[in-house]
Amino acid sequence: MLSLDVQLQRGNFNLEANFSLDKPVTGLFGSSGSGKSTLLNLIAGLAHPDNGWLKLGNKHLFHSAKNINLSPNQREVGVVFQDSQLFPHLSVNKNLLYGYKRITKKQRRFDENEIINLLEIGHLLKKRPIQLSGGEKQRVGLGRALLASPRFLLLDEPLASLDQGLKGQILPFLKRVKDELGLPMIYISHSIEEILHLTDQLVVINQGRILGTGHFYDVIKAERVKNVANSMGLENIITATIISHDIASGHTIAEVKGKTLLLPLTNRFSIGDSCYLSIRSSEIAIAKHYISQISIQNQIKGKIISWIKNASCVSLLIKIGSTALTVDITPKAFSDLALNENEDIYCLIKAQSFSFLGKTE
Amino acid sequence: MFDLSPEEYSTMMLSLKVSLWSVGIILIPGIFTGWLLARYDFIGKSLLDGILHLPLVLPPVVTGYLLLLALGRQGFVGKWLYQQFEISLAFSWRGAVLATALMSFPLMVRSIRLSISNIDIKLEQVSRSLGASALNSFFTVTLPLAIPGIITGSILAFARSLGEFGATITFVGNIEDETRTLPLAIYTYIQVPDGAESAQRLLIISIILALGALLFSGFVEQRTANWLGGK
User: Fold this and answer.
1) CATH number at residue B60
2) DSSP symbol at A312
3) How far apart are CA A113 and CA B102, in angstroms?
């Protein structure tokens, strides 16, 4: 669908990217300054690589050797930026139709009313952008991009400037766009949770290099991605199936390969859903024996496989069934406990230490 | 006191004519230059910027003298213009327009450049990705959003033109009904016996024109701010 192989040098920043996307939605994940937005600009034609090529379907958007470089208005690539970038001098309706009226009837793939209904923005048409809330702006920005009938959509952190509550309100609209319009897109974000709302296909970028592409679970566990994953608090990711929501005890209960976990109560997932959970390795404590009368709700038996000693912590690799957890403890704790390889221990994890990342697909 | 003599009236009209012409001829070059300086980096940008600002920092007499050297009938450009097209700028109101235009151009450019720099470049990028060509994007996004700056720049340039003295008198002289604009006329009346009353009337006219321009610019700015702000 979209494939590219590009190089770009700007001052000290060097970008080299080479990947091909064939799933409808791909998350482009990286910290700020990793090159995410540069890559977006290259795809949209807002910046040009020094070398390489970019292809959408069978059509080259850029090819340095063949001297092809389509301008942004010829690429049929839609862009939605973080701050929606509505034209302040135009009404919402004129904003929506900006791209729509610049293409012929034949090229129009979506109907105006269809998009307005899909994004629920009918009541905003006569307003000015400044009168809209952040979430409304973002929906109008999305609608405007869709009505230009792009063949590919780039979403550049579209939720980053919204507060947590609003994010939850916009994500379903993005999901609708994905499910109902079938438009392929790249969703750029530094939040893995947002990405997992839409897709589990991931491209990880760091310092101008693509560290991995593919299914979230495989990519995030890959050795090359480890440092990035750790810096985002994704040291441990497990897949769990929701068994029940126990409102009385304040827990959502899940099962991981025959073991039961007590998680914070959530309404994001239904019973039977399979979801990704993350636990920071510093949030797990170690005990040599099962401890009764303790507030920590999860005590999981495992076996110490190996460890790496650093100045400030010892990282233990602990095998639990067929999965493994990384646990960071202080050097003092490590020597106090006198841990040995292959020793059976208990991992103590507070229910609140689990974060829900998203549903598996 | 407010019965203007025919001479005073024609002085006022000449001043308005010169100032309006001056703003008129620098408007489009001003927008283009402001946009160029706001949006592009190129070799010689600082030099261009410096040269454009020279009239603002040079003594106006120097600017006027330079114009005279270049465009006077004996000047290297002026001579050619006269021989080829029989156009002479020196000692004509057209020359006054040129002198005031040159003096007010930097003010126009500064104001437009600032307002274009303040437009988020992503707005232009979005319009490109929505199918607008570079030119179309400029006319439908950049230009409308730069209107407050263009208006402010025009008013500043207009006011500067009304007040221009040094470059005008040096380049085109002080010829009644041709190049004697308000400041030149006031200066002349002060120099002659019993000119005080005329000078004072023209002084009041000057204040009214300048204040009127400022009030008008404030009004238009408010209107465009409301328009952009959606009130």
Assistant:
1) 1.10.3720.10
2) S
3) 53
Number of domains in chain B: 1
A52 and A6 Cβ atoms separated by less than 8 Å: yes
pTM of the model: 0.81
Confidence (pLDDT) at A31: 83
Chain B residues closer than 8 Å to A72 by CB: 125, 128-129
Give the residue ranges of DSSP H helices in B58-195: 60-71, 76-85, 93-117, 121-129, 134-137, 143-163, 166-172, 182-191
Residues of B with CB under 8 A from a CB of A: 120, 122-123, 125-134, 136, 140-141, 144-145, 227-230
Tokens read off for A128: 């000015």
- Give the domains, in start order, of chain A with CATH numbers: 2-231 (3.40.50.300), 236-359 (2.40.50.100)
Percentage of residues in chain A having pLDDT higher than 90: 47
- 3-class secondary structure, B131: coil
Domain with B42 in it: 12-113+148-223
Q: What confidence score (pLDDT) does residue B2 get?
A: 65
CA distance A155 to chain B (A): 12
What is the mean pLDDT of the segment spanning A104-108?
A: 89
How far apart, in Å, do the first and last CA atoms of chain A sit? 21
ipTM: 0.81
- Judge whether B211 lies within some domain: yes
d(CA B185, CA B103): 19
- Determine the number of helices (DSSP H) and then strands (DSSP E) in chain A: 9, 21
Name residue, tokens 């209904």.
Answer: A117
Residue whose tokens read 């994953």 = A229
* SS3 of residue A322 by DSSP: coil
Position B231 in a domain: no
- The answer to whether the Cβ–Cβ distance between B128 and A102 falls below 8 Å is no
